[in-house]
Specification:
The chain contains 9 helices and 15 strands. It is α/β, with parallel strands linked by helices. The chain has 2 domains: 111 residues, NAD(P)-binding Rossmann-like Domain (Rossmann fold, 3-Layer(aba) Sandwich), CATH 3.40.50; 163 residues, 2-Layer Sandwich (Dihydrodipicolinate Reductase, domain 2), CATH 3.30.360.10. It has a 9-stranded mixed sheet with strand order 8-9-10-7-11-12-13-15-14. Strand 8 and strand 9 form a beta hairpin. Helix 4 runs parallel beside helix 5 and helix 5 runs antiparallel to helix 9. The longest helix has 16 residues. It is globular and about 70 Å long. It starts with a strand and ends with a helix. It holds the Pfam family GFO_IDH_MocA_C3. This is Putative dehydrogenase. It comes from Zeaxanthinibacter enoshimensis.
Length: 319
Amino acid sequence: MLNVGVLGAGHLGKIHLRLLKESKKYKLVGFYDPDTKTGKKVAEEFGYTYFDDLETLIKSVDVVDIVTPTLSHFDCASMAMNHGKHVFIEKPITNTLEEAESLLKLAREKKVKGQVGHVERFNPAFSAVKDSIDNPMFIETHRLAEFNPRGTDVPVVLDLMIHDIDAILSVVKSEVANISASGVSVISNSPDIANARIEFENGCVANLTASRISLKNMRKSRFFQRDAYISVDFLEKKVEVVKMKDAPKQAGEFDMILQNAEGVKKQIYFENPEILPNNAILDELETFADAITGDTEPVVTLEQGTRALRVALQVIDAF
């Protein structure tokens, strides 16, 4: 088991603490929070060991799990790496691209592993179909949330849209060619609703919408590729996979056949991939443990987290 310490005891930090305590791949040593009052309260309520000194906790563990506000990600991660510790960092990886690139360099120098908490990569619906997403040419995503003051210290692009940016970058095997976007501040001082169009060098186009002022929650992505349409509902954990193949010479009574203007006939059929229930946060933490003990590449590398941040910041710059 790997000794792990958690930095940050807020809403998400408490979830990480609970899951790490239950995990068979980690031994939870304790946690740090700069707010002593909060730290002592969480320790008394849940029985976790509270460290009032950040460096003391870092020295006591093999892995540092950073669940602090984005502004402190770089300082926390660089301190951990300088002590030779592996780091799991909640998304976005850092506040600036320069900080992210510095962490990449430091991780290589110190020979430590890092993973970024893009949890939707572990969503069971996405996991069920990601291998079927092959050279998509049009992608549409909607990530809508009801208003919650938590997270409004950053633009909606870094709060919500970055989840879809990372998922798209993981399946589109091409570099970004152009980005256009618009964002509007309604309640917060930073944009609360945004739309972005990302064009890739291979011709793929992704249209992304994110809002944190909606009346209902929605987290859907649709992927269109040659002879296939794949829909992923990240919220309901459901998928739709509609595919086409050359129609048989003798169609069955219930076969769905389409004929285009050129007379080519295609048969429509549906696939129902198995969706295996899971705890996505626990999975991302435990696959990181596997990467450390097996000396393999984490599922969401620091490089991938940096790329997602780079594109997200380009979207913001395009407003």
